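Project channel, design review

CF: Before we commit to the Prunus persica constructs, I'd like one complete example in the thread so the newer folks can see what an input/output pair looks like. Taking starch synthase.
RD: sounds good, go ahead.
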Amino acid sequence: MKALLSSVIIPWQQPHPKPRIPVVCCSTINGSSSSSSEANLQSSQPQECKSSNAEEPKQSEIWRLFREAQKNILHLNQHRLKAVEDLNKINIEKQLLVDRIEQLELEKQTAVAKPQDRLSMFWELLLRIDSMVLMGMVTIGEASNLRRLVMDHKVSVAEVFNDTLQKSDAEILAELRHFLERNQRFRNGFHIVHVCTEMAPLVSVGSLASYVTGLSCALQRKGHLVEVILPKYSNLDLDEVQGLQEIEAECYSYFNGQLHGNRIWTGVVYGIGVTLIQPLYYSSFFNRERVYGYSDDFERFTYFSRASLDYIVKSGKQPDVIHIHNWETAIIGPLFWDIIVKQGLEGTRVLLTCHDLNSQCLEHPEKLALCGLDPARLHRPDRLQDTTKAHLVNVLKGGVVYSNKVVIMSSIHSKGRVIHSLSHGLDHTLNIHKNKVVIAPCGFDNCTWDPSTDNFLPQQYSVKDMKGKAVCKAALQQHLGLSEHSSTILVGCIFSKVSDVDLENLRAVFRKARRIDVQFIIKGISKISSVNKLGLVHEPLKDKNVRFIDGHDEKQSHLIFAGSDIILCQSFHDPVLQVPLKALKYGAAPIAVNSNDDGFRNFVEHDYETTNFSRFISSTFGNMSITQALDEIRNNPSKWKRKIMDAMEMDFSWDAECCDIHASAYTAIKNL
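CF: and here is what came back for starch synthase:
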């Protein structure tokens, strides 16, 4: 039995485990047979021993396959480790790349900020010079020379004085004087000072605010120096003013027979130097809810006008042009030529801009004495006496008479049409002074409103690649729950106010459009003016293809311009919303609302001295009704596409025609 047990093979006792095979092999000792029981056991398993011998090749094959499987697993594991190692390297490289991108983005932002920083430095130096004059540290003549030095864009003033602005006025003055000795070069651009009652984004009521900011930025981009003087309203958004500081010295101005102190604040807005004048004695003048609309508006703005001129004189400024606006600062014209010019401003000229000839301000002549003017001298037909109401003076008329140049803002009307038909009683005065009257169109901010750079859009586009416009159209339809068909004509309407005539015309258009595949989006800008009357259109015109939107949403407004094929506008002269100009830039046809039975039509002037915008719009969309526009889109798509692309290539921004006309006007009066 011992011999038998010793001959039994136990697989799990082997050094390397093998598959367990149920085999038992028997043997004899010294060739003799075993006991009977062993014999029986041996005789009972002869087939199993034979079977074991037959299975040995199969067992070897299994072991071979097992070893190959182990090798394969080991090989795959090595590959896996190598892949993990490579992936770690890729992740490290990716993180390095991300870090580099973030570094480049930071450098880009820094590079973008540098010009603004230099401009802020530039203005801080100029404002410090103003403070030096008011404190009596420098004479007016020396201050003028120092300003001319700083104003020279060819001189790297910001770099030279980068570390000196933390120093005292005396130390900066010494640096400036030393710098002046080494640099006696003067710039060719103009120095323009706006004296006005609005400026975006500080205070915006009408078209004046965006005009002052847009034109000033455009002029500075072309090498001119522009600054703005405003009243310091109690509700002014001072968070928009960079580096706001109060000049310690009080600036006195003449009003109502006495000298009254003003607190002067200075800062920078959009790279433009801004001065805020705050009356101390007449503190209630600008501490009110509204900018305009009070019974003492004449006193309020006359005080501000005189205070602005006194500040210009006492700060030693000698601008090339004092640019005044509307009747609110038109009194500066007679004030300048009768009183101020002899106080060191012999080289300065006055330009008046009229945004609304209907607002003229009629007052009793004796009130002119409040700011030091002589009523008897000015209450004459050739000066301030009103043409219709001879017992009163007309402040806007005085601005026209006493200014060296008058710019009337009108995008579509000719000079002749404005003088003879749209002057609201000033036609006689404007006709006498017609040689100094010019017409200028409004512009728009093409930095904010440009489909090729507009971050509000789902996909940007340009005249060279219009694919993004179709994407914007689909996004707009989806956003408002309209059916998304590219062939559907989408008409956007953006109104600040709705008249009864507009309502009737809208109803007529909707009725005609129901017969064809047209979608309408009507948006009211309640931030500017309530559009409650749209509700009168909404109820009778409920339709699956019409959507009404109210409220101010900047992203939504951009998407409407980008996604629309046509933009219905109330007028081509739209200085507040600038709807026609934005529509042209975004590849949407502006069609004007008009009371003609045939649809909306606006007949643009073909008289002499019209603007480029007027001539372009009259040759494209100006004489087109909504019905005609829809027909041309359907029946002559290639011609329509050409019109749209030509419009997108035009430049009607502040930097274009509007800026050029003003620069030419400054040049003309400077040569007088």
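RD: helpful, thanks. The first strand starts at residue 191 and ends at 195.
CF: The first helix runs from residue 2 to 6.
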